[in-house]
Every structure is written in C-alpha cells, then in structure tokens.
Design a protein that fits this description.
Elements (H helix, E strand, L loop, with lengths): L1 H32 L2 E7 L8 H9 L1 H4 L2 E6 L4 H9 L5 E5 H9 L4 E5 L7 E6 L14 E4 L4 H12 L8 E4 L5 H6 L5 E5 H10 L4 E5 L10 E6 H6 L1 H20 L1 H11 L5 H11 L5 H4 L9 H14 L22
Parallel strand pairs: 1-2, 1-3, 6-7, 6-8
Antiparallel strand pairs: 3-10, 4-10, 5-8, 5-9
Helix pairs in contact: 2-10, 2-11, 6-14, 8-12, 10-11, 11-12
Length: 337
C-alpha cells in the first residue's frame, strides 16, 4: 500500500511539473505575441556608431518596451528618409541635417531624438600633402559628390574661411571610391565624414589632416532618429517606447564600448572591431552640450536646431527656419533627479 501511495505521489508530482512547463511555455508564447513589430532603417551600411542599437536589441531594451525591432541597413539618407516618410519603415536613423532640406520641401518627417548634434563632415587629406589649414587648400584637387550635404557644407566652409572656390579643383566621384582615390594619390583631398572615411584611413596605418567644418562655424546636425508625422499622430505610445529604448541603447552602448562593438561583430563579422571601437568613441564627442549637462542622449535644445537651420538657410537654400517644423523632444523622458 505504501508503495502504491508513493507511486501515486510520483505521478502527481510529474503531472504538476509537466503542467507548470506547459504553462510557462504558454506564458512565454503569449509574451512574445504581445510584442509589437517595428523596423528601423539606417542611413547607411554598418559602422561602429550604429553598434549601440544592435546591442540594445541583444540586451532586450526594445523588448522591455514591448517592441520586436528589426534593424535594416540603408543605402543613403535620402532613400532611407523616403521609406520612413511613406510608412514602409517605422523609424529611421540617418543624417537629420540633410533630411531638414527634404522636410522644408514637404516631406512628412520629424526628428524625435537627435543623437549626433555636431557634424563630422570634413575636408580630409593625407598628412604628406601639408594641407593642415584652410589657406593651403588652394590649387589642390578634392573629391566630392555633387549635391551631397558635405559638398554644400564645403561651400559654407570656403565662404567662412574667405577662400576663392574658383582656385579649388573639384572632382566629382562616387563616395564608395573616395578612400581608395585619396590613398592612391588620385586626388589631394576628399569631402567626407571623419568617423567613417577618416578613421578608416587611419585604421590602415596612414596619417591624415582633418579640417572639420564645424570647427569653422559651419555646423549642422548629424545622425538622429526620425519618424513620420503620421506615426507620431497615430501611434504616439509606440514612438515614446521606441525612443525610450533607443536612448537607453545609446547610453548603455556608449558606456560599454567593447560590448557594443561585439554586438555589431556578431552581425557584421567582416567589420574591423578596432575601427568600430574608435568610431563609437569618437561619436561620443558629438552628443552635444545638453548631454554634458546631464540631459538624456538624444535631447536637443531649440537653439542648437536653430543654428543648424540658419547654416542650411545660408548655404543650402532652406527656407523655413522654425525649429518646431523639424523636431520635437516630446518623446524623450527626462529621468527624475
């Protein structure tokens, strides 16, 4: 009889255990089903500055906010902005300065978290060229992409430094070959971004000179997170949750560079981790004064936007210089002190 009761107890314990496993699986499945799918379209292919977003997915920061996020690479700011504006993608992370020109012409986008508040656009030359200050640019060739934001900023840089642009030889090239053309000596300089092209050249062992346009008063906003006006109107809660997760991702990733770089390495094993780490370390210098003052990464002051719009108005033909038409801080939660 005792053996029979023991057997019954064993069966009961087994059934209870099995039931708990089934319930746990059902709970997990239910939790997964409640996640809201969302896409984030990048402005370009992977660089180290994007790694905090991949780390945020890996750490579960977006799942904490009920979001199942899919990050997708881009082929340039303009096409990425278009897919976000038309609803093909939910959010975008790209060059907000360039997008401002599109918003000015009616594109239904708004900036919702401005990550990089200083541009890394620059005139980059090899150290051996001796072009270490603006006046030495004269009579040298520079590779550029007609109509690109770097080209427009260069016009402002030339004006701000009182150079004669007619004495600068401009070579229209595809940006994908800029670095090779510069290293090979086909051009004396390139117009590009320091943390992508400049650091990539240095990572190959070459010494360069870098003239950052922002250091000469020609600064526009760089990479930031944007969404469509339609998304802001119809799904404000999703936008707020997404921004919360994105800000947490950049904050954590900036404090744990190696961890962020490894998260990127999992998805892009061919990308050099040393270069990615340098890119992310440099990106931290672009976060803005508001971050230095204790505000969350992504929050931007109106006067910073205003200065960016003024530069675009002066050198790129932007008409509407009212910051309210381009961004909002409404979706960024300020932590309680």
């Amino acid at each position: 009889m005792r053996e029979f009761r023991n057997c019954i107890c064993c069966i009961r314990s087994y059934l209870i255990g099995a039931l708990l496993v089934v319930m746990a699986g059902a709970t997990s499945a239910a939790a997964q089903s409640t996640l809201e799918p969302a896409t984030l379209r990048l402005g370009w292919t992977y660089i180290g500055g994007f790694s905090p977003l991949y780390l945020g997915v890996e750490k579960g920061f977006f799942r904490e906010q009920g979001i199942d996020l899919k990050i997708q690479e881009g082929k340039g700011t303009v096409p990425s902005a278009a897919t976000v504006a038309n609803g093909s993608d939910d959010f975008g992370y790209f060059d907000i300065g360039s997008v401002s020109l599109l918003i000015d012409k009616g594109l239904g986008l708004r900036g919702i978290a401005q990550i990089r508040q200083k541009t890394s656009a620059a005139y980059i030359s090899m150290k051996s060229s001796g072009i270490d200050r603006p006046e030495r640019i004269i009579n040298h060739s520079v590779a550029l992409t007609p109509g690109a934001s770097t080209t427009q900023l260069f016009a402002g840089f030339v004006a701000a430094t009182a150079l004669d642009i007619s004495k600068i030889k401009q070579e229209g090239l595809d940006p994908s070959i800029f670095v090779k053309a510069l290293i090979a000596g086909q051009v004396d300089a390139i117009l590009s971004y320091y943390d992508s092209s400049g650091l990539a050249i240095e990572n190959q062992g070459y010494a360069i000179n870098t003239l950052l346009f922002a250091d000469y008063g020609v600064n526009i906003l760089d990479y930031g997170i944007a969404t469509s006006v339609n998304m802001m109107s119809k799904k404000p809660d999703l936008v707020r949750r997404f921004v919360t997760a994105a800000v947490k991702s950049f904050t954590y990733g900036s404090e744990h560079v190696d961890e962020a770089v490894q998260a990127g390495k999992v998805r892009f094993p061919e990308f050099d981790t040393k270069l990615a780490a340098r890119q992310l370390e440099f990106q931290k210098t672009l976060y803005g004064d508001s971050v230095k003052q204790g505000k969350p990464i992504g929050r931007i002051e109106t006067d910073v936007w205003q200065r960016s719009l003024n530069v675009l108005n002066k050198y790129s033909g932007l008409k509407n210089t009212d910051p309210a038409a381009y961004f909002t801080n409404d979706f960024i939660v300020i932590p309680r002190s």
